[in-house]
Amino acid sequence: MVKEYTREEVKSHNNNQSTWLIIHNNVYDATPFLNEHPGGEEVLLEQAGKDASEAFEDVGHSSDARELMLKYKIGMLVEADRTAVKEKKTTWTSPDDNSNKNQSGLKAWILPVALGVLATVFYRFYFQSH
To answer: Cα separation of 6 and 4, whole Å?
Structure first.
C-alpha cells in the first residue's frame, strides 16, 4: 500500500534537514540527494515543501533522472490534494520537417553571403574607377 500525504504535511519538510517535493502528485524525500543533485542543492531547497512539477519539467530531466527519482519516492498526495497531471509534450518531427529546418538554415546564410559578395563587387568597382 502506498503511503499518502497531504500538501500540508509536505509543506513542513522545507529545509536541508528534511527536503520533500511533490512532482506529479507523487511525494519524494530528496534529502539524501541534496549533495548529489547535478544542479546543486539550492535548486531542490528552493522547491522544498512545494509542488515542483513545473520546475522539474521546465528543466527537461532525462529518462535516467526520472528513473533515479523513483528511489526517493515515499508516497503520493491524498486524493483531495491531487491536481491534474499535465502530459509532457514531446514533439516528433518527420524527415520533411528536418528538410524545412535545413532550408531555413540555408536561407540564413544566403543573405549574408550575397551581401558580402555585393559589397566586395561595389568596393572593387568604386575604387578601381577612381
So the answer is: 7
**How many angstroms separate the CA atoms of 17 and 41, rounded?**
12
30 touches 21 (CB < 8 A):
yes
Give the closest residue to 47 by CA, choosing from 38, 60, 56: 56
**Residue range 62-90: mean pLDDT, rounded:** 87
Instruction: For residue range 94-107, list pLDDT tens digits in order.
Output: 555 554 555 566 66
74 and 27 Cβ atoms separated by less than 8 Å? yes
At 45, is the secondary structure helix, strand, or coil?
helix
Quick one: 120 exposed, middle or buried, by C-beta within 10 A (0-12, 13-18, 19+)?
Answer: exposed
Which segments of the chain are extended strands (E)? 4-5, 14-15, 18-23, 26-29, 73-77
